[in-house]
Amino acid sequence: MTLRSTAIPLNIENVDTDQIIPARFLKATDKKGFGDNVFRDWRYNKDGKENSEFILNKPEYSGSILVAGNNFGCGSSREHAAWAIVGYGFKVVVSSFFADIFKGNALNNGLLPVQVSERFLSDLMQRIASNPQTVLEVDLQKQTISVVNSDLSEHFEIDAYKKTCMINGYDDIDYLINNKELIEAFEAQKIY
Amino acid sequence: MSKRTLFDKVWDSHVVSTIENGPQILYIDKHLIHEVTSPQAFNELEDRGIPIFRPDQIVATADHNTPTLNQDQPVKDALSRKQLEQLSENCQKNNITLFELGHEYNGIVHVMAPELGVTQPGITMVCGDSHTSTHGAFGAIAFGIGTSQVAQVFASQCLLLTKPKSLRVNVNGKLQKGVLPKDVILYIISKLGTNSGTGYFCEYAGNVFEDMSMEGRMTVCNMSIEMGARGGMIAPDETTFEYVKGREFAPKGEAFEEKVAYWKTLPTDEGAVFDKEYHFNAEDIEPMVTYGTNPGMGIKISETIPVEDNPSFKKSLAYMNFEAGESLINKPINFVFIGSCTNSRIEDFRVAADFIKGKKKADNVTAWLVPGSKQVEAQIIEEGLKTVFDEAGFELRQPGCSACLAMNDDKIPQGEYCVSTSNRNFEGRQGQGSRTILASPLVAAATAVEGKIIDITKHLN
Ligand code: SF4
């Protein structure tokens, strides 16, 4: 599974889930429509007009890869954050560090979190900033992320089980339900 | 036998099986749900035709999106009302215990479950809410999950997880006057940073935690997530057993004694090794306040904001409209919020009332007191604290998450500062453009009385 795309550089550290999707948009009871409000309070000014300074609103940047600063996705467990990013059209988020819950939520929604070194991240940010047409390639099978037509490339880690799930579109629920007998046996002999 | 930690003991006893080169299947004893992160999970199961596996191990409440005024009347906001109705329907359909709005046990999920005895030592608990870490105060493994995982637990009472690494934070010594559990945890996070705990489960140890009440321990464990840790734990002891005893859902009589005998085996073995360990002196801790837009940006109230040359730091100060190097003492404050799953238990209101008694709220301040549950609310009235608050001009509201995340009408206006006992000072967390300063209930009460931040350490003798 390989993705080739230009990327959007969000050069901010500690992007928390309240920024990704503010609480006032959490009232929906389905998973749709969150993409419209991703980074809402950065994308729009107080008067409701688009903030032309914010990176998502700059026409020169586009693509299905979001490259973000260190410690992305900290804060609340709201999966709405992952739905919002996926809803906007991103397939991969790159950062030098992800918060635990966000990472799990992303993987459960087909959004690949790619954790890279700080050095690689800063090189990547620079390349994209100086040339918005920079194309990245993310190869899930080989677990590599690289800038096409350059020597900038790095290996990334992903849990082997999660990788199989991502590639085959499996889901944890199927796996768990298939193990119901084991679970019932466990319940019968609980030691605590 | 090898030396094991409290976390190891509880985790290992819940492993159903281990996938080769992959995660483990972890059994979940108790699943707490609320209106915001459960509807999509219910829908998913329904769409796939999967029944809820163990409905009697689920407890539901409505808290995030509920009004804190006129709870006896229909909820005005249509979307909120729909979320609440959907929760009620889903629970009814699936035979799940629900303490809905107005019920005598209704409250913030992390306040309600411990006070009902749902939370017990040695169990595993999850909720679609990151502050589920609160329940670790009892020596339980408790952590927040996303909605896909809520659906997994619905379907199987299990989760697929990789065992986190272990971290221990030790605080020993004697806490100074006016230093509350909230200050202890804000201090720890200010020293370790907001991602020091990522990938870890944290145990808090040392005499400071041993001497704390259960409510104080909950305040500490609550904010484990603010240093990135999935959860925090404190070894169960007599304080824990005493607290659990006699509560609605706690085991009774002989069954309780048997449990206690088991719970006593849980504390970390002498000599067990942690992947990471930190030590702090209680004497070094002072009342704390935050000055930035993440909970790690905290200082002692008597200190000045540090000077750092980093774009994220500067962006954060610009949002707060603070200068590097300045002190927060004497900053005028117009909003004070005492509430949230961090500090909305009876002890928090006692501390506040103690300070407020005989004083008046400053005219410029709007002060909201939001109890964590109906039971806390009832206790506030019973103990006469409400009279103290009323006389001082504070507004006691009805239970819920309220201004902690501002999903309902309790929002701090654009540009205003709020000294808040909640747990997150993110941009806009308490309302679009609002500026949050995290503090203890004592600092919050003092701010409300003075109309500005004061050096509380000078007012305590
Ligand atoms: S009080 Fe705040 S932190 Fe606690 S559960 Fe409610 S919204 Fe979350």
From TrEMBL, chain B:
Its EC number is 4.2.1.33. It is an enzyme of class 4 (lyase). It catalyses: (2R,3S)-3-isopropylmalate = (2S)-2-isopropylmalate. Transmembrane segments: none annotated. Keywords: 4Fe-4S, Amino-acid biosynthesis, Branched-chain amino acid biosynthesis, Iron, Iron-sulfur, Leucine biosynthesis, Lyase, Metal-binding. InterPro entries: 3-IsopropMal_deHydase_lsu, Acnase/IPM_dHydase_lsu_aba_1/3, Acoase/IPM_deHydtase_lsu_aba, Aconitase_4Fe-4S_BS, Aconitase_4Fe-4S_dom, IPM_dehydratase_rel_enz, IPMI_cat. Pathway: Amino-acid biosynthesis; L-leucine biosynthesis; L-leucine from 3-methyl-2-oxobutanoate: step 2/4. The keyword Amino-acid biosynthesis applies. Its cofactor is [4Fe-4S] cluster. It comes from the Bacteria. Residues 8-451 form the Aconitase/3-isopropylmalate dehydratase large subunit alpha/beta/alpha domain. GO terms for biological process: L-leucine biosynthetic process. [4Fe-4S] cluster binds at C341, C401, C404. Binds 1 [4Fe-4S] cluster per subunit. GO terms for molecular function: 3-isopropylmalate dehydratase activity; 4 iron, 4 sulfur cluster binding; metal ion binding. Heterodimer of LeuC and LeuD. Belongs to the aconitase/IPM isomerase family. LeuC type 1 subfamily. Catalyzes the isomerization between 2-isopropylmalate and 3-isopropylmalate, via the formation of 2-isopropylmaleate. NCBIfam families: leuC, PRK05478.1, PRK12466.1. This is 3-isopropylmalate dehydratase large subunit. The gene is leuC.
